[in-house]
Amino acid sequence: MLADEINRAPAKVQAALLEAMAEGTVTVGGDSHKLPELFMVLATQNPIEQEGTYPLPEAQMDRFIMKVTVDYPEDDAERDIIRLVRNEERAVGGVNSSKPADESESVIISTDSVFAARREMPEIEVSELVENYIVNLVMATRQPERYPESSLADWILVGSSPRASIALDKCSRAYAWLQGRNYVEPDDVRAVANMVLGHRIALSYNALAEQVTQQDVVSHLIDVVAIG
């Protein structure tokens, strides 16, 4: 399910979505219906400062395993966007419905392949050293005073919940699997840390005043928290 511009949805709609994310069910007219096993929620979000938006509750933000920040595209990507829209216009208008020569074929992944990959996730090895690294990263968001030489205590108002540790473990294993390995390295944790931890940290007034972002905090976190 893709929730486009999720922060334009009022609280009641967001609450209904939260049930789907947390319980895997939807309730209609008092009747609860279980969602399919292969079900996920994807959402886009407008900047909070725009008019007509509703801040997402922390509980709902925490349900999203990752938040990926999409910046402005580079030159080549911008050019591809222009060409894509132009080709779509031609196809709709019937002028030229053929695909451009450089467009790659769509890749279709069967549900069985997804379930098979999921079954392999628990078999990815996570050493105690990596486990400690994950715990230390999350605990640093809750007890930044452990690192007095850093700016974490000035920037973090509320740290990450236990869901952050679970998500960091899962995403690190998935990243290692995508790299073709059956074990997790500290670099796998670093690769996903910003996307997993950023939206789970509430910034202090000092951070907002200094225009420090959640991504800046996680990047600093990675710099100051040692492995092991």
Which descriptors would you attach to this protein?
single chain, 228 residues, mainly alpha, two-stranded parallel sheet, two-stranded antiparallel ribbon, 10 helices
Return the average pLDDT rounded to an integer.
86
Span between termini? 39 Å
Number of strands: 6
Gyration radius, in Å: 21 Å
Number of helices: 10
Contiguous low-pLDDT stretches (5 residues minimum) are none
Sequence of strands across the biggest β-sheet:
1-4
Q: Class by helix and strand content?
A: mainly alpha
Main sheet, how many strands, which sense, barrel?
2 strands, parallel
- Written as H for each helix and E for each strand, in order along the chain, the element string is EHEEEHHHHHEHHEHH
Task: Name the helicity range.
Answer: 40-55%
Query: What is the 3D shape?
Result: globular
Binned strand content: 5-15%
Report on the architecture of this protein:
There is one protein chain. The chain contains ten helices and six strands. Helix content is 49%, strand content 7%. The longest helix has 19 residues, at 75-93. Helix 5 (128-142) packs across helix 7 and helix 7 crosses helix 8. The chain is mainly alpha-helical and 228 residues long. The chain has helices at residues 11-23, 58-63, 75-93, 111-120, 128-142, 152-155, 162-178, 186-197, 205-209, 214-224, and strands at 2-3, 25-28, 31-34, 42-43, 156-158, 202-203. The mean pLDDT is 86.
Describe the secondary-structure layout:
Elements: E1 2-3, H1 11-23, E2 25-28, E3 31-34, E4 42-43, H2 58-63, H3 75-93, H4 111-120, H5 128-142, H6 152-155, E5 156-158, H7 162-178, H8 186-197, E6 202-203, H9 205-209, H10 214-224
Parallel strand pairs: 1-4
Antiparallel strand pairs: 2-3, 5-6
